[in-house]
Amino acid sequence: MANSANDRRIDYIEMNVGNIERSKAFYGKAFGWTFKDYGPEYCEFADGRLTGGFTTASPPRPGGPLVVLYADDLVDIQRRVEAAGGCIARPIFDFPGGQRFHFLDPDGYELAVWSKR
User: Fold this and answer.
1) Under DSSP, is residue 90 helix (H, G, I), strand (E, B) or coil?
2) I need a surface site. Which of 6, 18, 96, 99 has the fewest CB within 10 A?
3) What is the DSSP letter of 77?
4) Is the dihedral of CA 80, 83, 86, 89 positive or negative?
5) Of 23, 26, 48, 44, which is closest to residue 35 (Cα–Cα)?
6) Any long-range contacts for 108-111 (C-beta under 8 Å, 24+ apart)?
7) Contacts of residue 21, Cβ cutoff 8 Å, sequence gap at least 6
8) Are 60 and 108 in contact (CB under 8 A)?
9) Model pTM greater than 0.90?
10) How far apart are CA 116 and CA 33, in angstroms?
11) Is 76 helix (H, G, I), strand (E, B) or coil?
12) 12 Rama sector, left if φ>0, alpha if ψ -120 to 50, beta otherwise
């Protein structure tokens, strides 16, 4: 039996958030994500490659796995994250293979953005 194209790959990310509209505004402004509402407690997001969801069914649980996004222009995306209301948790730093920074979204989730040098 052949494996599906999604076998052993990240398929979906779901975050419990305090306010769906606030999360949509932040990720839409900072990263240009699009959204599809599924009632008052759930919203799906799409970044053009991966989908996930925001839900208010449970309280936010910051922590867990680090979600890492990619950006061609790291300085520009850090500026956009700050303009959207994100808090820089770790400014741009070098690591093997590139540079990255970490930020906190409005619900306290820590994410990272990386770029090749």
Assistant:
1) strand
2) 96
3) H
4) positive
5) 44
6) 108/60, 108/62, 109/15, 109/60, 109/62, 109/67, 110/62, 110/63, 110/66, 111/66, 111/67, 111/68, 111/69
7) none
8) yes
9) no
10) 22
11) helix
12) beta
- Residue 9 has, within 13 A of its CA and on its CB side, a CA count of 9
Q: Which residue, among 62, 15, 64, has the nearest Cα to 41 in the 3D structure?
A: 15
Residue 49: what residue type? Answer: R
* Contact criterion met (CB below 8 Å) for 85 and 26: yes
pLDDT band at 42 (very low <50, low <70, confident <90, very high): very high
User: What are φ and ψ of residue 75, in 5° steps?
Assistant: -65, -45
Q: DSSP for 8-55? A: TS--EEEEE-S-HHHHHHHHHHHH--EEEE-STTEEEEE-SS-EEEEE
Tokens 């770790």 correspond to 90
Tell me the C-alpha distance between 103 and 2, whole Å. 39
Tens-digit pLDDT profile for residues 49-78:
999 999 999 899 888 888 999 999 999 999
Tokens of residue 23, six digits: 């999360």
